[in-house]
Design a protein that fits this description.
With 241 residues, the chain is mostly beta strands. The protein folds into two domains: 1-154, no CATH class; 156-241, no CATH class. Helices cover 2% and strands 37% of the residues. The chain is built from one helix and 17 strands. It has one helix at 58-62, and strands at residues 10-15, 30-35, 43-47, 49-54, 72-76, 97-101, 110-113, 116-121, 125-131, 138-144, 153-154, 167-171, 178-181, 190-196, 203-211, 218-220, 228-230. It has a four-stranded antiparallel beta sheet, with no helix packed on it. A hairpin with a 7-residue loop joins strand 16 (218-220) and strand 17 (228-230). It is globular.
Amino acid sequence: MFHPTQRTWAMAASWTTCAEFVDEPCRIYKELYYTKNIGAEWIYVTNYVFDFEWGQSISAKAAGIAIPDDRIWVTRDDKNTGHQGTSKKINWSVAIDLFVSEDYFKSTPTLALKSGNTIIKTPQYMFVSCSFSDQLRVKIYSSTFRSGFLNLKQVYLPKDATLSASFTLMDTSEEQVFLFLENHGLKSPFGNLYISDTNARSFTLSMENVIKGTAVDFERVTSLDGTFIVNKYEDGKTPAV
């Protein structure tokens, strides 16, 4: 993952192998590294990593908002001492937390969000999924570049949206966010589309029963600002609007 503004900087993660553990039991987990010279040298950051992002943003840079270039966001299980799960995660975990560091974990990182599992970041917004105690559903937190992405708060969603087990960020180009939620269940071919305010704090229903296959049927028309095409399911009983 390349840095948003520093062309020679990048982060990457790799899994350990049993060959690395000569005098102790094998432990398979993901390690995070960074480079500042396009990969000529990789420096270790931390282990038991799930997601990671650079803290910098081209939008913040353009607006004159100061964010340290070395700031990184990492979700990890800091209490795990055994194997880290390598399969594609279906359930969420309360053991994974979100951390922020400005010195690549040389000092103790700041715990930014308990149970923060995954990070989705654009130049304008950052979203973090946090596991409920049942480890089946998630609540969503958001922040914007104006706070350096530090002001994470839980987003307001309609009541039916809180049943979601996952979410997909569809578009952030118009100073608002389109969010797709699988609140009909993971096996359903449909979900609902929600739209936010400019701070991505409050969402309202934009369209229900949006079709999803391998991807959500949602497209932005690049030649027409603010225009989107969505494929919606109608059961034939309710007149289309």
